[in-house]
Structures are given as C-alpha cells and as structure tokens.
Amino acid sequence: MEVFRKLDCLAEEIQQFQPPVDLWRKFIYCTSLSGSVLGSVDHMQPQDLERVASPVSVAHFSQYKLIRLLLKKLENLDFKIHEGDRDIKERKILMGHECLSFAVTDNCVNVTSSFHKDGRTLKKDIQCGFLIGTDGAGSTVRKLAGIEMEGERDLQKLVSVHFTSQALGRYLLKERPGMLFFIFNTEAIGVLVAHDLQQGEFVLQVPYYPPQQNLEDFSPKMCEDLIFKLVGHELEDIAVIDIKPWVMHAEVAEKFDFNNQVFLAGDAAHRFPPAGGFGMNTGIQDAQNLAWKLAAVVNGISPTTLLSTYETERRPIAKFNTALSVQNFRAAMEVPAALGLDPTVANSVHRVINDGLGSILPSGAQRVILDGLFSIGRAQLSQAILNDKNPVGLSRLARLKRIFEEGKSLQLQFPAEDLGYRYKEGALVLDKNVIHDAENVPTGRRRDYVPSSEPGSRLPHMEVKSLSSVSDEVYWIIAADPLLIFEFLWLDNFSTLDLVSGDKVEFVLIIAPVESSYNLAHATLKVADKLKVLVKVCVIWPYNRANNAAPCSVGNYINIVEVKKSPNLPSWWDLCGMNDRGAILVRPDEHIAWRAMSEIRYPSYEMDKVFSVVLGHAYKKPENIFDAQVD
Fold first, then answer.
1. Whole-number mean pLDDT of the chain?
2. Which of 47, 499, 503, 545 has its CA 20 to 30 A from that of 89?
C-alpha cells in the first residue's frame, strides 16, 4: 500500500472500494457457517489502524479488482489496450498474447509471441531491450530461460471455487463478519475466503486428491452441494463463477536474472503458500526494486551492471518470505490437528494409495478406500465427540483454545517483515564496523516493526510539514545572520516517504539544519550534477525549533518540520537511531542507500564514492583526497 500511494492515488482508491475493516479483521473457525463457532482470531491491533508506523493501513482487495484499477492507471498514462494483430509501439498493452520463445543478443531480446485472430493462431515477433517475466507461477519466460525452482513442492493440492451469494453475504454481515472461515464438519472441510461480504463474493478452497479425484468431479452442481454442506443450509441465489485446481508450492527461482536482459518478478520468481499475503506483496516489492533500476539504465544514469543488484537484493527476501509463509501455513494446520484431523496423516494416506499397496488396486477401489478413510477422519468432528462432556472432545477444545490465545494459528499481519525487511548487499553502501544481531528465524508469529535507518532498510515514516514563507511560499537562502527570524506557513501534513518522487529517478539526502550537513549537501549536489543524477536535499527541523527556523535553499532543497502529537514521541533522528550530525541518502524506491552517523570530513570524496557504488559506476579513488573536494 505504501508503494501504491505513489501510483496516482491508487492506495486511496483501494481504501475507498475495499470492504470496511470490521468486516474482514477476523478469522473464524466453525463447524458450519450457521453452526457452532470453535474460536475466532482478531488480527487487527490498535496500532495497525493508527498509522504510526506507516502513512497507510493494510487493505483487503481482490486481485481482479486491483488489476482493473492498474489498467485504468496505465490508460491515464496514455497506454492503449489492444487485442490481435497490432504494430508494436510504445505504451501498448497487448491482451491475449502468449510468449512462445525468446533469443538474447548483445543489443536486444527478440521475442516470438502468439495470439488468436478469426479462429486462427498467429505469431508476432517483438524486439525489445529488456524482457520481464511476470507471467505467474507457471512462468513460460522462466522455463524458456532454463531457470529451475528450488524449495518444497506439492505442499497441498486444492480446488478453488469462486462464487457469489448475496444471501450468504447478508447473513455473515449480520451474524459473524470475517475474512477467512475455517469450516470443519462430518460432511465437508474447507476454507472460505470472504472477498466482499457486502457484494456476496467468496472463494472456497477445498483439498484435492488426484488421481482418485479429478476435476470433473467438481462440477458446478457438486460445488454448490459442497458449499451448502459448509454453510449448513441451501442458498437460493448461489452462482458458481469459476472452478480451478491449483498446487501449493514453497519455491524460489534459482536466479532472477538472465544475462542482465531477462528478469523474473512476482510469482514467476517465487511461489508461496497463500498465508499472510506474501505472494502479492513480495511481487510488488520486486516490481518497485526493478523499476527504478531499469529507469536509471534506460535514461543513461547507470550502466547495465546496476541491474544485477536486482537479484542480489530481492532473492534473499523471497527466500525469507518463503520460509515465513511455510511456517504460517504449518501454523494453520495446527487447528485441524488439534481437532483430530492431522493433514500430514491425510497426505501420507494418499501417498500410500498412490505409491504403495493401494496402487495395484483398480482406480474405483482406490477412490472408495480414500473416501472411506476421509469419512472416518471427519467423524472426529461429530457432536458426540466434540463437546465438553466427552473427555476426548474436552481435551481437543482446550488445546484449540490455547492455540488461539498463544497466537499459534494462521496469522494475517507481519509488520516486522512487511515494513522491516532490509537488503544486506546490492545498490547500497553498508555501515562500517556495525555488528548486527543474529538473523531472525521465521516463526510464523507476528512481530512488531522497529524503524531502522540502516542502509538497505525502508525509510522510516514520520509525519512532517513543509516550512515555507507566508509571503511568497518559496524557500529562502540561509542568511549570514543566523538570528534572522521568518514567519512560516504550516502546510498540510505528509509522510517522510513522500519526500521520494514517484515518477522520476531522484535520490533524497536528509540532513539536519547544521553547518557540517549543509556542507555535505552542497558537495552532494555538485557530485550529482557531475554524474547527471537528480538529488533533492531535505532539511528536517525539530518541531520545537520551527518558530526560529531559517529555511535553506541552495539548489534543490526542501525544508520540513517534525509533527508530534505528543512531546514524548521520539524526534526524527531518535527514530532513526542517529544524531543530528548524521545524514541519510534515500534511493528512488524509498530504501536507504547510505547513511553517515557523524560529520563527514571529506564530503565530496565520500559522496563521489557513494554514488559510484549505488549507481554501479566504476570508481577510481583519487591519488590525493584533497583533489576530490569541491569548492
């Protein structure tokens, strides 16, 4: 959502069209949608809605709705959507095209695609500078590049049933609103995703065990009957829209980059269990990371070597998020296991039937055995067993209660990973002599986000205001007399993240209003001008010094002041774990490229080195460090 804030108010539109948070903040565990509730988990904590750690809250929004909004944003940028045989020009979106092959040369990538026209399949050749495979978990681009996936395969096979029922939506709105409903009864087991209770839109996920079961078994009529069993009664207005099988994997591509010309992003580069929203969020981060680097290369700011840092930075994050999503998925399995339905046992039984003695039996007999064993398993959910008066049921319900109270079930929010991920190497300059704590091991538990200004981290959020003159609203050059006092206009509050441009390759240098930092800023702008890269200097004034502030403007400067709802809240530099003699350089993707913890003795030399490393230029150390200084 922080990324979407920069895309022509996309985040605001999502917040406008998404369901109210009170309708999706809970996961509910029940015997049917109209039956007994086994437990529920509220995943929203007060700080999630107060916008302290971030200028925007989490959102719940269907992917197909998001794609519609994204296409609209592209049309606003003069992109044209076409189908069929069209000449390839800039700003074209070719729908219905499939990548068949590609060939990489020193200067370009030649792509052969196919499309349908008048009942015929035609081919089209496309020449491009770069090819980005964002073509999903079964990525053709990845396969054509010969890139393998690494990790755990076939964690679970499922069938996804997309359907609508306004009657069900109205019932759940009134009786038990939630996002996910985990339903366990003697007739059926499934997970219902409530995409929009107000519109009555749902997706049902049910386990799938081929070859004893096949997709033809999941006809619309069979799916309706299955939904009725999980709801607890029939629905007159049910409409099944789509039925699709899918396989849950936990894998990451062995590489994201092919010859610095072909790249993988999103599900093409990593496939996660759908636990915690890591798939889409990690993919959005991929796109943001790659976009500014491609822009820097295309605009002649950086050599193509910068693009190699995409894999260096993003693949470790994908591997960590894979492990975290697996842990979260396994936490989800704790609930059925507590009820006497261990999913690992079901999968083991299925493997025995497929590969063991059961494999010699006719397919019909195999199915009868599988259905019979699953029926015996679901019998553990009968009211005769699952009640307080039955010792077995009492024990299972007590265990279930502990799982919910201790946060050991499936989790929705992971602030520490959503906001606190950090690149360990790449287009950045690491701190010297900094000893890091031991790497956090994914546990599947929620951990709070702790802001950090370490290179590779996302820029921390703080609410600030612009500081400008009332008379003409321009920024003043710092006066020789520091006692000069101006009256200033308080403009609307905004986030420190908004200091970073959303539509150009521009770095931001954040400093405090001290003389040594102004010297650093002056040197930075000189170096940036030499390297043909845009830099904006941001001077952050303490909230209690704003009335005596003399804003500075020597070049591309902006002066802002901290906004505090309470005097006890930390200052900007305290939030960053620094003092006001330091400085922070922020990349176009809102990640920190470099920081100085204290005054820089030779600022021109230092910034020349920093930008060379971050932008991928070859750096030649001057023979005499004084020759590197700029007047």
1. 88
2. 503
